[in-house]
Amino acid sequence: MKKIKLTALTGICLGLLLVATGCAKDTAKAEGADNQVEVVENQKTSEDLNKEAAENKASENSEDKNDTENAKAEKDAKDGEEKSYNVTLTYPSTAYIVDGDEDNKKVTEQVTVTATKDDVITKVLDQLSQAPETKGAEPVGLDKFDYSKSKLDGATAVVDLSGDLTGGSLDEDVLARSIVNSLLSVKGIKAVEFTVNGEKAESLMGHVDISEPFTKNL
Predict the structure, then answer these.
(1) How far apart are the first and last CA of the chain?
(2) Parallel, antiparallel, or unpaired for β 156-161 and 191-196?
(3) pTM (2 decimals)?
(4) How far apart are CA 94 and CA 100, in angstroms?
(5) Shortest CA distance to 117 belongs to which of 86, 148, 85, 80?
(6) In Å, how far are 183, 212, 214 from 189, measured between CA atoms?
């Protein structure tokens, strides 16, 4: 009888052991499945993060582009704004033109010119082409020529003259000196370069060398 009980007890224990083993396997499988789900979820999250990073980068690039375009637009608008320029116009003196006084070749006149960077050169030349108001000053003779294509290139005033560029050494001397000195008096202009009919030239009328820009008063 005891032997039968012992056998039954052993069977029960073995059954319980088998059940426990099965439960442990099921638990391991469940944990494995959970881990796989977690990995998948982590992978999905990583992909989402990469996508968000790409979107953020695209947005930043777009903002940078807009900032650049806005800065350029602001600069263009600023360049197009009118401002006042103090100019010292240089005219030939009566003493030089009439009497040939080499020691008193020029007379200056202070004016204020309102212009943009795009038209400051032509505005100054407009003033210079008019008859001077200062006593003892003579006209430059600039009104005989077309200078409408003159422009500011960086810090260089490019003066383009067209028309009947004929005259003596005195005419050319007066024209070159008056233009160069007047434009170099404008703040920001460091050099004056001449062209004739849009092309580089050796001289205006055959007497004054204009092959290189002028950086100092004549």
Answers:
(1) 139
(2) parallel
(3) 0.64
(4) 9
(5) 80
(6) 7, 16, 11
Distance, in Å, from the CA atom of 195 to the CA atom of 201, rounded to the nearest integer, reads: 6
Which tens digits make up the pLDDT trace of 25-79?
Answer: 554 454 554 544 344 444 556 666 666 666 666 545 545 554 555 444 445 446 5
List, in sequence order, every beta strand (DSSP E) within 13-150: 83-92, 106-115
Element holding 151 (H helix, E strand): strand 151-153
CA distance to 95, 173, 195, 203, 207, per residue, from 105 (Å): 7, 10, 25, 21, 17
Residue 127, class by beta-carbon neighbours within 10 Å (0-12 exposed, 13-18 middle, 19+ buried)? middle
Query: What local confidence, expressed as pLDDT, does residue 77 receive?
Result: 41
Q: What is the pLDDT of residues 1-11, one digit of tens each?
A: 444 444 444 44
Mapped onto helix, strand or coil, the DSSP state of residue 157 is strand
Instruction: Quickly list DSSP for 123-149.
Output: HHHHHHHSPP-STTB----GGGSB-TT
CB count within 10 Å of CB 90 equals 27
Least confident stretch, 75-89, 120-134, 155-169: 75-89
Cα Dmax for the chain: 158
Mean pLDDT of the chain: 78
Residue of 172, 118, 170 whose CA lies nearest to 145: 172
